[in-house]
From TrEMBL:
Protein name: Beta-L-arabinofuranosidase domain-containing protein
Superkingdom in the source lineage: Bacteria
SUPFAM superfamilies in the cross-refs: Six-hairpin glycosidases (SSF48208)
Domain Non-reducing end beta-L-arabinofuranosidase-like GH127 catalytic: 85-388
Residues of the Non-reducing end beta-L-arabinofuranosidase-like GH127 middle domain: 404-497
Organism listed in the record: Pedobacter jamesrossensis
3-keto-alpha-glucoside-1,2-lyase/3-keto-2-hydroxy-glucal hydratase domain ranges (all copies): 665-819
Length: 826
């Protein structure tokens, strides 16, 4: 045992692995520049250099942005997080490409900050009293040090972190810093592994104690348990914090921390999941609707969290999830020349024009490609996406070996065994091809371990070394190969990709092949509506030039029998729709009733499947999600509709529900009931809805227990069709209770307008539970409270005959339980 420990220690000296008492089997990043992209992956980096990253300082020249008078360069501006965000990506891109122009851009920012540290240890703009922006800047410094070995960096960071430890008690973390302190802890532990300074472990504990309890939040689905506090439900914070428990598990290895990432992602995807493997957020968690979006910041932060966690937890599924996000969500956020981004990207985005969407944080150009789309954060933070993916694709292991985190065309050069240099050239078109060849280059035969991630989605993986089959290869596991490697050894990995469907919102489906998600190919009409000062940069509206409202025909249970796969050679940029190297041909029918919504800025949510269509059968083409600007990736299926139309019961046992779809605002589960979630103002937002879209009732009794704790009104929806995001964005009836006013109101939304039909005074009290029951027969309606013999409201109306049931809140906090609908049979 002692000899093994000595051998381990010798091997660990190659890179700065974890020092005691930290977890000892953690992998580390290779120095920036060790991994070089090739092929299609290199093209993305080059486009980024020539696009939004290489031109960022010219695109955003103000003193509050990246101009010469920015405060991070000693000027009078107020750049706050903008420069650190940008530099985090710029440094990684510059040294991954080994590009002198980008290096020079980065160097002036690095030099100014390194040369102007205050005597106390504080760095950055003197007037900036905020811990948070310094966190992404430390990531930029980490990358810069690993690429250059600049001797100023480690003492600089150590001095700052000592200052931080001394001052956190009187100036504790707040808001963004309190949310994102995992970043700070990661850098503190990285410096500890360089210096061994014990105070850094104290700092890590203090940062953890001042942070949000992310392990609790992830393990127990507590994102909305913090009242008006917006931070723990802000999707970028959540994505960034996914790595927090994994980082802390290096200090405390209990399952509570090691399992929190998996549990958190499971909860997020159950209630907010989208086909590309991310949870929606506009900007708060936003449900599973096909027309809710994901923010570019969320994409790159979710990726970095998985990149960090994969080195600590060694769970193959983390790499699977990372590839899914990187190969689908990331390129979909960018224009194909990487000169534009969209602040939000939707799974079903059939039009990209200016206008309102009803999102919790709405921006007129939030889904319009351009260098100024939406709020400023993403245009600075997005630069790390591709270069961080490359630099985290391989990692060094403490036993003197290497581990593959993600696959793609690239070359890695590293030190292994007793300080022997190895180069492994990865020849592949993955994920557009199934085969990956790895060619080993060594000066002399050397014994060291290699670890390969075998994807969970691959049913029959095959690995060969020099043509010989490797035994024991299992999907979803890490394949460890310990052997003496020689120059020109070749490892060939075959990951056969099979088509499969994943069930999505409203019983729709998404289609996957390996790590790729596919979306409908929609012809596009582009119109540049604004030109910026840097030539070639525009804001561009995109409208569909071909039908998009298709349902898929999937008569056979095996999706592979319903699809024709069309392959072509891999172009320089496979994310250009017309030259996508993989296309799927499928049978489909138009669904004429599926149209743009009330605002004309998005489609209606995908209709509940199966959907009846009498249109002719056509052949449609699907392309990789990342190759689209406009898309449908959640498809309805064609068939005979199957609705719940006799009995519906939902009591929210185990703090969940099945089939309730959120439209606007948010709802969450606690104490086996459903709650409307507050915004920062303590109110739910106007007209937020949760619809049981699988239900279809005509004549019925609908009851529920309702308790309201604020001003505003909340209650029950019924006979609802065409729900969308927006206060009156539905067709159907509503019974609302206003506890403060002491009234019940029965009305309807028609033509996107609210119409009151009848109301009644009733002695309602806040925080008291009322059983509300609605009897609907034809055009007659009766509303009862607490099982009264006499209805509180009696009314007639004949506009809506049949539809779904659900819940609604208008600027009110409400708790609802025991939904029960019983149809009347004729």
């Amino acid at each position: 045992m002692g000899n093994a420990a000595v051998a381990q220690q010798k091997k660990s000296t190659l890179y700065s692995f974890n020092k005691a008492p930290l977890k000892q089997d953690v992998y580390v990043q290779l120095p920036l520049g060790s991994i070089k992209a090739k092929g299609w992956l290199l093209k993305q980096l080059e486009l980024q250099k020539d696009g939004f990253t290489g031109n960022a300082e010219e695109l955003y020249p103000g003193k509050n942005d990246l101009g010469k008078d920015a405060d991070w360069l000693g000027g009078s501006g107020n750049s706050w997080e903008k420069a650190p965000y940008y530099l985090k990506g710029l440094v990684a891109l510059a040294y991954t490409l080994d590009n002198d122009t980008l290096k020079a851009k980065a160097q002036k920012w690095m030099n100014y900050t390194l040369d102007h540290q205050q005597e106390s240890g504080l760095f950055g703009p003197v007037k900036m009293k905020d811990w948070w922006p310094r966190m992404p800047f430390m990531y930029a410094l980490q990358s810069y040090y690993e690429a250059t070995n600049d001797a100023r960096v480690i003492p600089f960071l150590s001095k700052y972190l000592k200052y931080e430890l001394a001052n956190l008690d009187q100036d504790p973390l707040k808001e963004w810093g309190k949310s994102r302190a995992g970043d700070n802890i990661e850098i503190a532990l990285w410096v500890y592994n360089k210096t061994g300074e014990k105070f850094l472990l104290q700092l890590a504990e203090k940062l953890k104690n001042q942070s949000y309890p992310w392990a609790d939040i992830f393990n127990r689905n507590q994102f909305d348990y913090f009242g008006n506090d917006y931070q723990p439900k802000h999707m970028v914070n959540v994505a960034q914090a996914l790595k927090f428990p994994a980082i802390y598990s290096q200090i405390n290895q209990s399952a509570y921390y090691t399992d929190a990432l998996e549990n958190g992602i499971s909860h997020l995807l159950e209630h907010n999941g989208q086909p590309h493997g991310l949870a929606s957020g506009t900007e708060r968690l936003s449900g599973k609707s096909s027309v809710q979006g994901v923010e570019t910041c969320t994409v790159v932060e979710w990726m970095q969290s998985l990149e960090t966690a994969s080195r600590i937890l060694h769970d193959v599924q983390i790499g699977d999830q990372l590839e899914k996000v990187a190969f689908n969500a990331l390129p979909a956020q960018y224009s194909k020349d990487l000169k534009q981004h969209t602040y939000y990207t939707l799974p079903n985005q059939v039009i990209s024009v200016r206008g309102p969407h009803g999102f919790n944080q709405d921006y007129g150009n939030g889904i319009v490609p351009g260098p100024y789309s939406g709020f400023p954060c993403c245009r600075y933070n997005m630069h790390m996406g591709w270069p961080y993916f490359v630099k985290n694709s391989w990692a060094a292991t403490p036993d003197g070996g290497l581990s593959v985190i993600t696959y793609g065309p690239m070359t890695v050069t590293a030190r292994v065994a007793q300080d022997v240099q190895v180069t492994i050239d990865e020849e592949t078109g993955y994920p557009f091809e199934e085969q990956i060849k790895m060619n080993v280059k060594l000066n002399r035969p050397t014994y060291f371990p290699l670890r390969f991630r075998i994807p969970s989605w691959c049913i029959k993986p095959v690995v060969k070394i020099n043509g010989q089959l490797v035994s024991g290869v299992k999907r979803g596991e890490q394949l460890l190969i310990k052997r003496k490697w020689s120059n020109r050894d070749q490892i060939v990995l075959e990951f056969p990709m099979h088509l499969k469907t994943e069930q999505q919102v409203n019983n729709g489906i998404s289609i996957e092949r390996g790590p790729l998600v596919f979306a409908l190919k929609i012809d596009e009409e582009k119109k540049n509506i604004k030109e910026f000062s840097v030539k070639g940069f525009y804001e561009t509206e995109i409208t569909p030039n071909s039908p998009w409202n298709y349902g898929l025909l999937t008569e056979s249970g095996d999706i592979n029998k319903n699809v024709t796969l069309v392959r072509s050679s891999i172009p320089e940029n496979p994310f250009v729709q017309e030259q996508a190297p993989l296309k799927l041909k499928m049978k489909a029918k138009l669904i004429p009733s599926w149209t743009l919504d009330y605002k004309g800025t998005a489609a209606f949510d995908v209709p509940f499947s199966p959907v009846l269509s009498n249109e002719k059968t056509e052949e449609v083409t699907l392309v990789p999600f990342g190759a689209t600007n406009l898309r449908v990736s959640i498809f309805p299926t064609i068939g005979m509709p199957k609705y719940t139309d006799m009995n519906y019961l939902e009591n929210f046992d185990h703090n969940t529900s099945k089939g309730l779809v959120v439209y606007g605002g948010a709802w969450y589960y606690k104490d086996n009931a459903i709650h409307s979630a507050p915004n920062e103002d303590g109110r739910s937002g106007p007209g937020i809805k949760a619809i049981a879209t699988a239900t279809k009732f005509a004549d019925f009794i609908y009851s529920a227990n309702i308790s309201i704790s604020t001003a505003g009104d909340a209650g029950l929806l019924f006979r609802v069709t065409e729900p969308a995001i927006g206060s009156e964005a539905y067709k159907g009836y509503y019974v609302g209770l206003n506890a403060k006013a002491g009234t019940l109101t029965f009305g309807k939304s028609s033509n996107n307008q609210w119409k009151a039909i009848s109301s009644s005074n009733y002695p309602l009290e806040m925080n008291k539970i009322y059983n509300v029951s609605i009897k609907a027969v034809g055009d007659s309606f009766e509303v009862y409270v607490n099982n009264s013999n006499k209805p509180v409201i009696t009314a007639t109306d004949n506009e809506f005959k049949v539809g779904s049931v659900g819940l609604r809140a208008y600027n009110a906090l409400v708790i609802v339980d025991d939904l029960n609908v019983r149809a009347f049979t004729k």
